[in-house]
Amino acid sequence: MSFSYERTIHFADTDAAGVVFFPNYLSICHEAYEEALASAGIKVRTFFSDQGLMIPVSKSSADYLRPLYCGDRVRVTVTPSLLTENSYAIEYEMIRLGTPEKLAATMRTAHVCINPATRDRAMLPTSLLAWINAS
Asked: What are the tens digits of pLDDT across the range 76-91?
């Protein structure tokens, strides 16, 4: 099951042309990711430091289908999937709300769990696996 996050596009999200600056699409998706974790009971503020792990983004991609402007309302769906015992991906859809709703962009991030001291891959934490598998 996907998680949905809604927000308004702010002036700070846009560039000189008045549309959302391309890296800000991923920033907005990351907001949605954090909210999805929080809704699953994962406390983002302490989760990564308490686990003694790092879970960096190892790959990202985006397809920009239509511009978004300051004041637009968007819904971002977050759908994680397990890749290996120490990595997962998240698919995002960003939909401009209104009549009709329009798909504005699709993004994907891949994440890998590592030990910060050795930089070797590590098993995903149980709570994160539960979040991924519940989706």
From this structure: 999 999 999 999 999 9
**Contact yes or no for 67/19 (Cβ under 8 A):** yes
Q: How many domains does the chain have?
A: 1
Q: Write a three-state SS string for 90-107.
A: EEEEEEECCCCCEEEEEE
Q: Is 132 helix (H, G, I), strand (E, B) or coil?
A: helix
Tell me the pTM.
0.93
- The residues carrying an active-site annotation are 15
Taking a C-beta distance cutoff of 8 angstroms, is the pair 50, 116 a contact?
A: no
Phi, psi of 20 (to 5 degrees): -60, 125
Q: Which domain holds residue 71?
A: 3-134
